[in-house]
Amino acid sequence: MSEQKSIATRESYGNALAALGEEFPNLVVLDADLANATKTLTFQKKFPERHIDCGIAEANMTGIAAGLATTGKIPFISSFAMFAAGRNFEQVRNSIGYPHLNVKIGATHAGITVGEDGASHQSIEDISLMRTIPGMTVIVPSDDVEVHAAVRAAIETDGPFYLRFSRAASPVINDGADYHFEVGKGITVRDGKDLTIVACGNEVYHALVAADKLKEDGVDARVINMHTIKPLDQDILIKAAEETGRIFTVEEGTVIGGLGSAVAELLSCKHPVSVHRIGIFDVFGESGSWKELLKKYKLDGDGIYEQIKARL
Amino acid sequence: MDKQKLEKTANEVRKGIIRAVHSAKSGHPGGSLSAADIYTYLYFEEMNIDPKNPKDPDRDRFVLSKGHTAPGFYSALANRGFFPVEDLTTLRHLGSYLQGHPDMKHIPGVDMSSGSLGQGLSAAVGMALAARLDNKSYRTYCLCGDGEIEEGQIWEAAMFAGARKLDNLCVIVDNNNLQIDGPISEVCSPYPIDKKFEAFNFHVINIDGNNFDEIKKAFDEAKATKGMPTAIIAKTVKGKGVSFMEDQVGWHGKAPNDEEFEKAMAELERAAG
Does pLDDT of A7 surpass 90? Predict the structure, then answer.
């Protein structure tokens, strides 16, 4: 885990698309006037003929992608998570999900780390919304390495994918030689026997920081990087419940319907243990720097540590 | 196919609509009947399609954006040979592949699932765009309802198609003038429809959408139009071909009972001559 190398996963997303454009000639990238922010501009510079700016019309972009997919193209549509999943929910549901079309949704600026733009642009509901759609794969990569692996997997796997990226920089944590990404397979990034923290996205890093602090108190926490929210890795969760008991989930989004809910839904019937969800508790975000916001909403290492400690 | 043959075929398509909706005890006969002549012309004359090879990558595409008029679409497909005409009476029944709204996963000849109003035109634009990206010559057709175009996404799609000069795209608006809550001019008037599409950089053709001479002329003109997409505003009669359904908003989404079914079928038999 090297804190010095940090890169926003939206940046990694643009780089991954650009890197894979040549290998996959059917790859097309659509944006809705945010190419500079979603970083699809990186792809556009290399493959201008396969980058389609749809203007500020996300619903239409989604439908165009569906039409392109019926002809064998592999379209990625990009916008902020608020619009890609929120404004677009029914378009994604009916034009992509229902016909199970091969469209990939690259949603950037997810969660409260959007920062200064404030609550109107801080999507905390997108994981919950997208995982309700039958056949939708939902992935929240935790760093640069994982984004590249996830984008490749999305291209190589038929069917709709929702990929969630952040605006703020994430430290690289998956640069170990043994790193292996597989859709639907969680990764134990730290072993432990007293409790398990299940996190996704940039919260995996913060969960690791919290686990270090718990260690100082003599609490041995396991940390699972649950990059795929759907389909959820049942085996790794049941094993963790059996071996460590108590589970804590951490996500940069609402605790209603997201990763925490998915984990609780599974364990409540497969191996009931105490599941405590850490995330945004039924409130909207607000303006501020992303670091201040993570601190205020107790989603940085200190905040997660505090919340877990309070329940031990 | 000459005009008389087209009219005969359209009459068969209309019979299929009535049979399907009667059997389903639900569905949308009004807008299916108003567009029956357009469906017939598209599938028996205009489009480059092969019922034996419905997934041919070079085929022309069709998106039924006003997906609730699936009975008309299905009847045209069945009569053209994509699936047995007898199956039309399984419409909306549990276990049937003929879902209430077009389902591309299970129905031969359906290029795009649709039914949620406003979304089909965007998909059609995507298909037309794909043809351009791949240097293919197939054309894409999209049928919209005149009430449906109250949806904002239609105009997002129209703006894109006009801006990108997608001349391989042809939009048809079934202008039967009725939506569920009443005449479109009274509910939330989308008129003038032609001027709106013109403003979005479409070539616009106004026709009588229940007249095969005019339908043929419009589609020929659309194909010959370069540098911009075409919108055909087809003035039609809702419920066309069944006297008691004609221009009656009540027949938008209602199935005929047994007595009404017999009466409608008798009328269509007589029209067949």
Answer: yes
CB contact under 8 A, A60 and B116: no
Biggest CA pair distance of chain A: 58
Is A67 within 8 Å of B131 when comparing Cβ atoms? Answer: no
Residues of chain B with pLDDT under 50: none
In tens, the pLDDT along B12-29 reads 999 999 999 999 999 999
Cα distance between residue B127 and residue B106, in whole Å: 19
Tens of pLDDT, residues A141-156: 999 999 999 999 999 9
Q: Are B252 and B28 in contact (CB under 8 A)?
A: yes
User: From CA B2, how far away is CA B237, in angstroms rounded?
Assistant: 22
Tokens of B88: 């039309």
Pairing of strands A247-254, A195-199: parallel
| Mean pLDDT score, A207-236 | 98
Total domains present in chain A = 2
Please tell me whether residues A193 and A295 are part of one structural domain. Answer: yes
- Is B135 in the A-facing interface, judged by CB distances under 8 Å? no
What's the domain range around A142? 2-172
Which of A28, A70, A90 lies closest to B112 in CB terms? A70
Residue B272 pLDDT: 81
pLDDT tens track for A41-76? 999 999 999 999 999 999 999 999 999 999 999 999
Residues with Cβ within 8 Å of A178's Cβ and at least 6 positions away in sequence, in order, are none
Listed residues A172, A204, A234: the one ending a domain? A172
Q: What is the mean pLDDT of residues A250-259?
A: 98
For chain B, list the domains and their CATH numbers: 3-272 (3.40.50.970)
* CA torsion angle A240 A241 A246 A252 (round to 10): 60
Find the length of chain B. Answer: 273
- At residue A125, what is the residue type? E
| Alpha carbons within 13 A on the beta-carbon side of B42 | 30
Closest listed residue to residue A156, CA positions, set A164, A148, A144, A166? A148
Q: In this complex, do B105 and A57 lie within 8 Å of one another by their Cβ atoms?
A: no
Would an 8 Å CB–CB cutoff place A67 in contact with chain B? Answer: yes
pLDDT beyond 80 at A4: no
Amino acid at the residue A1: M
Report residue B144 as tokens. Answer: 């919209």
Closest CA to A86 of A129, A116, A56, A55: A129
For chain A, the first-to-last Cα distance in angstroms comes to: 27
In CATH, what number is assigned to the domain containing residue A116?
3.40.50.970
My answer on whether A110 and A255 are in the same domain is no
Q: Do A272 and A207 share a structural domain?
A: yes
Is this complex scored with an ipTM above 0.95? yes
pLDDT score of B273: 73
Torsion, Cα B72 B73 B78 B82, to 10 degrees, reads 180
| DSSP symbol at A123 | B
pLDDT tens string A114-167: 999 999 999 999 999 999 999 999 999 999 999 999 999 999 999 999 999 999
